Amino acid sequence: MTNQRIVFRLIRSCAGAIVFVLFVATAYAQSSVEKSETTQQTKKQEDELALARAAVAKPGEKPDKPETGRIIGRYSVQSSLEVGYRFENTRGNRDSFLSQVNVRDGLRVLEYSLDSRAIDGRGMLYDSLRSEVNNAGGDQSQNFSLRMEKARAYRFDSHVRRFNYFRTPGPNFARDIRNSDLRQQIADYNLRLFPQRAVRFNLGYGRSSAKGRYSPDISLSNDFFQLLGTTRWESNDYRIGMDATYGGWNFSASALHRRFKDDPSVVSKSFVDPGFLNPTDLATLTSLSRLVPIRSHATVVSGSLQGNIGDRVHVVVRGLHDEEFSRGIYTQSYLGNTTTANQRSTQTFDADSATKRPSDLVDAAISFDLNEHFTLNNSFRYSSFRIQGDMRTNQTTVNQTGTNPPGTPSISRTFGDRLTGLTSFWNTLDLGMNFGKKFSANLGWRAMQREVELLGIVTTTNSPAFTPSLRSKDEAESIDTHAFVGGFRVRPTNRTSFIFDVEHGTNNNAFIRINPLEFTRLRVRTQIQATDQLSFVGAFTSIDRVNPTPQVQNEADTRTYTASVDWNPHARVWVNAGYDHQNLFTTANLRYFLGSGASRVEVLGRLLAYGRMNSVFTNARFALTNRLDFLMVYYYIKDLGAPSATTGTSDTVLALPLRRHNPEARLSYRFNNHFTGNVSYRHFSYNERDLSVLDYRSNITTVSARINF
Amino acid sequence: MRIPKLVLVILFCATAAIPFIATRIKANAEQKTALLSSDPGQYVGSESCAECHNNQTTHYTLTAHSKTNNDKYKVTERGCEACHGGAKQHVEFYTSAQKLIKEGKDAEAQALYDDGAKAKAAKMLSFSEISATQASALCMKCHENSQGRSEERFNYRRSEHMRHGVSCLDCHSSHSPKRTEFLLRDSEPNMCYQCHMDQKATFAKPFHHKVPEGGMKCSDCHNQHGGFAAKQLRNSVTGDMPCLKCHTDKQGPFVFEHAPVKAEGCQACHTPHGSTYPKMLTRPSVRLLCLECHSNTPGVPGEDDTGTGLGNRPTHNLADPRYQNCTLCHTDIHGSNKHPSFR
Hints:
The structure holds two protein chains of two kinds. Chain A has three helices and 32 strands. Chain A is mainly beta. Chain A has a 26-stranded antiparallel beta barrel. In chain A, a hairpin with a 2-residue loop joins strand 1 and strand 2 (75-92). Chain B contains 14 helices and four strands.
């Protein structure tokens, strides 16, 4: 309750301060509204006479041709290619390193770029073309992009991204035993026909896929086995749409069809039994086959309308309807020995499911310019979905002891029918105030109403017949949220900016119990451009979330302090350095059990989770000579973990104190305008304070050559 | 069908506001002063600008804006004048001055410049002299509609950036961009870090989305031009959280959905930017993350222990290692097609 009172006082003080500042600032701004400028547009007035003299001195001179690279036909072409080799050397837990960094030895196309533009802005095939490649050849994150356009004819965008994931199980299996080694590729291609015209057409194709190894598990006779499986899923999106502009109104309509398939499988005869999972049960698994194909498709149609009513009312309406359907099949069979002496067990399991999800989304927003300083905005969102699915499973188990004949098959069938529904309404009403550069502010009210509904029936029987019965209501929650939002930005001088934001709200209910019944977010940020070469940024963010319900007593507080400096004394030196401190504290009531059977004990305790993170980051570039360039980067993170504090006997303190260094240095030597040699060194050092088995130290050296052509 | 009170309140307010808005529109229509002249006679073409503003023109020819400089566009939407307004008076004024200088009459030229009324009439619109709102409104004149991508900038007027006085020109430079693509002043995420510096530290954590590596951009998940969702988040193509744009395998639909995933969003369990905990979870221990919700809470799971669809509250022996990682058995934690407890 003490915390609540503090929060209330804080809110009251903040709200009072905002209202006061708004009134004072509004009065001030009204009395001295001045011509303002955007932050990055400050510049000295040109000497008009000198300008005129210069123009007269060079009568009729046309602009110089810009630096455009090679001229090929009617196009200027600039391109560069950086190719290099990475040498990686890791000591300690390499799996942990791969989980976090995942950089390995090998040849890389570190960067490639091609920029081609029509000299006079109008080319035959294209006006401009840009292609980029980053980190191709095996790094954890690779990019390929191509963008080309011809004014009023077409614009084509494509972007392909590849991610290599490696997740280690680690010795602390409570974090995650199921490691995986996945490659994911996300590709997106968009073609817009007749851009800049009144009617435009859009065609698109997106493909997202992943494949690799993963480690699921299975429980046999209360023992666990880690399996090695392969997974492969892919999603294909086909899009078509049209935009039009008529009478100052913009219309947009689009349709999408998605097909998704997922084919994870485990077919193996070798199994890992991590003994620590259940050292007393010694079941064995002889063979297993598991196939879990899923097929789904979605059809989405959407439309939008945007325009002005008169000069002062701006309206946007958008709607989306989505129909999704999914079908899943699960087939598994295994053979193994149970913990019962000399007993073999064979089991087949299959499941069949079908799910559909219709959903709707409607957005509407309106802005009304009361005058040149005040704007009234209202945004509204309605969203709804109902996920309705049913499934049935069949499980047949046959046990055989010794040389006896197989026992009677044990058959178990499950029928399930489930509905998950959500309907939500959001509305944000706010008043925006803008008085040029000096002052802008907003005050608003956000309201939300959500209805969550869970209905279902799951019946297990050994009868082949299923008698449908009514679904029972498992849970139905109605949550109303009301929040006050406000903030302002003050620029006392051309070089100083101060931003303040606050949001305070209440929920009358919580769907998941870590959701707060009260929440407050406060943010302060300041930017100071001390000189043309030196600037500072400071920020403070505070988030408080409280759910004081007796069973829950959840409280989560976050405080973040950031300060950074940017120093660019001249073109040859640039330094950016910063410090960030993040303090997280969460407490929640816990209820769990220790022991089993008659010795089972219920524990009513409290979770105390801490994070006390200190981060330092530095980026610096020094052009040592006209040819020699030095880049230095350093990131340091230290989580201090939990503070020393007296805790109750049933309290669980949760923290992960650790330290991570990541320095990097890169030296570049420009031999001539076309060729640059680079060598870089990067070091990673990861240390957990309480458990050293995941620690690693890694050195990555990259030698590369850059060619501009 | 029961209509929620909130909708009724909104409808009532909207209805009540219509006469007021209509009155204001009428009353204010005449008061509005356009920043740019709509008279085509005031427009002389960008070639005239190049005579004096050589440097700006040089850079401008490389940018996408230069493609407006042709007869497919209205004269009020072409080249330099599309943003800076008609230059007729400006050109006449300065041509006169130049003529005087050519004739060696510098003093007369200076006198002409000192003539406040004439100089004011000849002044072009400078973006350094108008507010962020006005500057952005001028950009939106073209970029809100046919020049823009579908719906991308429809909500700019209500965006967080706009609310905080951030104009288009804070991120884009029409004359001398660092990146020719979208005329950006800097590449992402460095440009975003200029204000959102705290996120730089977050993305440096051991487990993070691949923003520093260049695999992702801030604008993949956030619509910097303003969206309808909180934090300017984009939606996936199906109207869901943007996470599902890439993590398509979590989309489902599943027979048994882990309801918080769809009702509250992925951030109920994950920290989206970066974390020191594996899988960007909000806690270093899976079981404690789960227990924070699945502990002694009426309705979670089930209103009581007899809830049929959701299974009972966890009664496992948490001293036993095999029960210390919930996702060991509850493998399909985002949603399952075969078991209500996501096994």
